[in-house]
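Journal club prep — side note

Before the paper discussion, L.F. wants everyone to see what a predicted structure for a comparable chain looks like in token form. Sequence:
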Amino acid sequence: MISSKNFQFDKEEEWEDLGNGIKRQIYGYDDTIMLVKAQFEAGAIGELHDHFHAQVTYVESGTFKMTIADEERVIRKGDGYYVPPNAVHGCVCIEQGMLIDVFSPLREDFLPTE
């Protein structure tokens, strides 16, 4: 079974620079679930994509234009969304912000290769 350490502290967890104004910080996970913070600069684009994982996201800060399948909405701090498995989705960051993503199962592609 794959799993993270029991505790994660913001100042100790490294940020992965994904380029184009987006950074990712991985928090707790096991085979069935994963928590990830994604930091966006204004104007950064989370390109349209899909994956077999279910995803729920909380908007910690900022403003985003979010697309899920054929629906587009503006979301802000305190809002959230659900992405069903295999649904095409992506966002444009309107005002710098942070998204808190939960994936099920684990996003193995986010783990560092050793």
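L.F.'s comment for the group: The mean pLDDT is 97. Keep this in mind when we get to the figures.
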